[in-house]
Amino acid sequence: MTGHEQTKLEQRFASRTDSAIDAVQQYIISQELGPGDPLPTEAELCKLLGMSRSSVGKDSLSTLDEVVTLRKYLDLGVGQELIHVNQTQNAVTGHLRQLVAKMVKKSAAGKAYIREDIAFHRGLIACLDNKLLDETMSAMWMIHMAVVPSLPADLDGLVATARAHGAMLEAIEKGDVQAYNRAVEDHYQPLRSRMSIAEKK
Questions:
Q1: Where are the domains of the chain?
Q2: Theoretical Cys-Cys bridge with 37: which of 33, 50, 83, 94, CB 3.0 to 4.6 Å?
Q3: How many CA atoms lie within 13 A of 167 on its CB side?
Q4: How does pLDDT run across 131-147, given as a tens digit for each residue?
Q5: Per CATH, which fold does 58-200 belong to?
Q6: Does 13 score more than 50 pLDDT?
Q7: What is the pTM of this model?
């Protein structure tokens, strides 16, 4: 593949991801959803985004790949601000710790915890009082919800990701941005592994 062809392919993937995020953002606005409000069901999301619930196609994986990359960059980008807000306003609440405990408990039982996962990340963003960022993250989470259930299962990854949430909180409380960044990387690694397996099938 030439450099020009690679650029065109990347632009096509980015355009599709932007379209998916725009569609979900419009849904959030039209439904007047705010932090903590219930999100649509998996079936509703798949219908909204034109994705299949039973299989993961290349287009869906490409869209998810873009979304996961954006989510990770955003999570890494707000680490220092979260630490600052926590130091001045004690933003890391007991509610987030409870969510981590639920995720760890569910993962130990081999159960998924996507609702708690979403609530955790939206709770962190809510600390920053940034409506645009919250809407963008919520939109990406909805795309995540529509695709991830069809990926290969990874019970060990569930446990590792649940624990990574706890490590993120601990790093914020300690004011350690490097530890926070490591925890974010650990958080996304199991998902990346599942996506890699799906791509090879």
A1: 5-49, 58-200
A2: 33
A3: 18
A4: 777 777 777 777 777 77
A5: Four Helix Bundle (Hemerythrin (Met), subunit A) (1.20.120)
A6: no
A7: 0.72
